[in-house]
Amino acid sequence: MDIKVGIIDYEAGNLQSVANAFKAIGANAVIIRSPEETADLTHLVLPGQGEFGDCARKLRTAGMFEVIREWIAADKPFFGICVGYQLLFEGSDEAPETEGLGIFKGRNKKFSSTTLKIPHMGWNAVIPTQPEHPIWNKLGEAPYFYYVHSYFPHCEQDEVLACTSEYGETFHGAVAKDKLIATQFHPEKSQHAGLQLLKNFISM
């Protein structure tokens, strides 16, 4: 089967940089805006930047909430990035009245430090908590990735936690379950490490 990666456009982030990253590793990547466009996809990507509540509303308006739930339930390859990672959880302290997709148990919380600059922005090491997972192939024991965020999920399911990072406190940087991967960091901004991670996702 030919690989076709669909990147969901719900007006929440720089989609072209994500598409360009997939194209850089030789994958056919297209930007999609409706449920109908998922029919011939092999991989689905939910990127995002911005406020949790606003992003959730835009995703619902685009008709993609149930599509994503059904895609993940069918164990098709899925990648969430930044707010696209946060939306997989039940909710967020950033928008307490807004429900997330509820794929995983837990909520998004804000960094508690009063001395460090928030948002957490820049390169940081990640420590894999599932080091044998194929997502970490060829990335070493503590690869560096690029973060830009003020909130992060607190995952209540230890078995799906994929890595942690440190920024005044230990926070959950990614989850991995079956063919689903989601990261708080931006692989499309993480140069060699990010491209390798995307290669690993495509080849899982």
List keywords for this structure.
single chain; 204 residues; alpha/beta; Rossmann fold; 8-stranded mixed β-sheet; 3-stranded mixed β-sheet; 5 helices; 23% helix
Read across the widest sheet, the strand sequence of neighbours is: 2-1-3-4-13-12-11-8
What name is given to the CATH topology? Rossmann fold
How many individual helices?
5
Low-pLDDT runs: none
Alpha-beta content class: alpha/beta
- Estimated radius of gyration: 16 Å
CATH domain class: Alpha Beta
The CATH H-level superfamily is: Class I glutamine amidotransferase (GATase) domain
How many domain units? Answer: 1
* Main beta sheet: 8 strands, mixed
3D architecture notes:
The chain has an 8-stranded mixed sheet with strand order 2-1-3-4-13-12-11-8, with helices on both faces. A 3-stranded mixed sheet has the order 5-6-10, with no helix packed on it. It has one domain (4-203): Class I glutamine amidotransferase (GATase) domain (Rossmann fold, 3-Layer(aba) Sandwich), CATH 3.40.50.880. It contains 5 helices and 13 strands. By secondary structure, it is α/β, with parallel strands linked by helices. The protein has helices spanning 15-24, 52-61, 65-73, 83-86, 191-203, and strands at residues 4-8, 28-32, 43-46, 78-81, 91-92, 106-110, 120-125, 127-128, 144-149, 151-155, 161-166, 170-177, 180-183.
